[in-house]
């Protein structure tokens, strides 16, 4: 790569971003932007925000969670309650021209307050709800409908999923919003005020995936179907030695291979004749999924996990063995994957950490360690705001920065 040719994996080099955040959505957005080359400074209160010691922790009490979502950032610890601390942060935001935050409703770092300091400001604020109310992933999810269609058929109680899907989706929307606003600013010279309510992210996704539209158009709510896949044939099976597999047959070829490998081709044809069903149609495979599963189950329960793995590997069937996180962490999909590289994370130790999951020209940039709280406070104040060492010492002695 020549000195005057930009690095394709770092398109945001030269962009500075201030992040005021906690938990998942905005930290994920900041990390993603940092992985794309931006210089992201996470500004936290002295002592840390609510997620600085969030579980999981090491035996020494260091947050593995914090390390995971703040890779590649700089960290400044500033007293966010004092007038002097707020003034420092506002100056940092004005210098960078971009703020991403989920600390909503704070007038001192609102768009209206900051735009007077930086007219082309890009201000992205994540809130819980569009009406200004609070909300987190799990409370937003409760109001969507997903917990009442998750879990085994016949279950009456709601079932939460473990993945904070709306936080993750929202964080990527924030990163997208910043890159789009930068393009707009480069073209027009104008900044933007962008609001992203977490609840709206969930609502938009539920609508785009037809969960809400189905209820509007057909007047029915999605049913609970356990480990089946709505509208397709997909089911979990257990081997003779207790291993579980997820099997998915999206196409006619997948389904034919499934019938053949399980020795059920003739039985499937006979079932179709008896039911008057056409199993070349994915909808009919779904409608008669329980009967079909009965035909396939005997083969799975009669074979070991290794035998099933060998047989399925020779087919077009979409499948995977259910694994624990511990098993996945030791699997070649992690240990031999160029997405992961060994990261020497201070206070945590060495482990395989993922890069941004975009292979640019066939390559991934290795993960960069996360900072400790306040690691870069002096550096940021000196280089960004051009404060003297004496001024920084005074702020430190006063407890305004740490």
TrEMBL record:
Q: Please name one Pfam family that this protein belongs to.
A: CoA_transf_3
State the UniProt keywords alphabetically: Isomerase
Against InterPro entries, the record matches this protein to:
CoA-transferase_III (IPR050509), CoA-Trfase_fam_III (IPR003673), CoA-Trfase_III_dom3_sf (IPR044855), CoA-Trfase_III_dom_1_sf (IPR023606)
Q: Does the keyword Iron-sulfur apply?
A: no
GO terms assigned for molecular function: isomerase activity
Know the name of this protein?
Answer: 2-methylfumaryl-CoA isomerase
Q: Which organism is it from?
A: Mycolicibacterium hodleri
């Amino acid at each position: 790569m020549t000195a005057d040719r930009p690095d394709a994996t770092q398109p945001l080099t030269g962009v500075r971003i201030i992040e005021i955040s906690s938990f998942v959505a905005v930290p994920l957005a900041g990390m993603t932007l940092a992985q794309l080359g931006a210089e992201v400074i996470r500004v936290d209160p002295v002592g840390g925000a609510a997620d600085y010691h969030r579980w999981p922790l090491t035996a020494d009490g260091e947050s593995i969670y914090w390390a995971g979502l703040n890779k590649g950032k700089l960290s400044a610890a500033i007293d966010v309650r004092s007038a002097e601390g707020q003034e420092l942060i506002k100056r940092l935001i004005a210098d960078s021209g971009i703020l991403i935050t989920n600390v909503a409703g704070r007038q001192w770092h609102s768009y209206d307050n900051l735009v007077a300091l930086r007219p082309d400001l890009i201000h992205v604020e994540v809130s819980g709800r569009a009406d200004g109310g609070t909300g987190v992933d799990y409370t937003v999810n409760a109001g969507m409908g997903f917990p009442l269609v998750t879990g085994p058929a016949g279950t009456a109680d709601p079932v939460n999923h473990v993945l904070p899907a709306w936080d993750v989706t929202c964080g990527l929307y924030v990163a997208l919003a910043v890159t789009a606003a930068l393009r707009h600013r480069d073209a027009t010279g104008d900044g933007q005020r962008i609001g992203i309510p977490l609840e709206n992210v969930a609502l938009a996704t539920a609508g785009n995936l037809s969960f809400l539209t189905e209820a509007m158009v057909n007047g029915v709510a999605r049913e609970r179907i356990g480990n089946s896949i709505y509208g397709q044939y997909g089911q979990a099976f257990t081997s003779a030695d207790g291993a579980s597999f997820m099997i998915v047959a999206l196409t006619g070829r997948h389904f034919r291979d499934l019938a053949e490998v399980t020795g059920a081709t003739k039985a499937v044809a006979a079932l179709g004749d008896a039911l008057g069903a056409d199993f070349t149609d994915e909808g009919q495979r779904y409608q008669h999924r329980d009967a079909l599963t009965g035909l396939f189950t005997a083969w799975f329960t009669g074979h070991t996990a290794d035998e099933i793995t060998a047989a399925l590997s020779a087919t077009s069937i979409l499948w995977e063995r259910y694994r624990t996180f511990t098993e996945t962490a030791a699997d070649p999909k992690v240990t031999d994957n160029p997405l992961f590289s060994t990261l020497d994370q201070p206070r945590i130790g060495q482990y395989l950490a993922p890069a941004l999951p975009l292979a640019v020209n066939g390559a991934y940039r290795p993960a960069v360690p996360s900072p400790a709280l306040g690691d870069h406070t002096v550096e940021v104040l000196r280089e960004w705001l051009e404060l003297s060492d004496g001024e920084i010492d005074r702020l430190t002695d006063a407890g305004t920065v740490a």
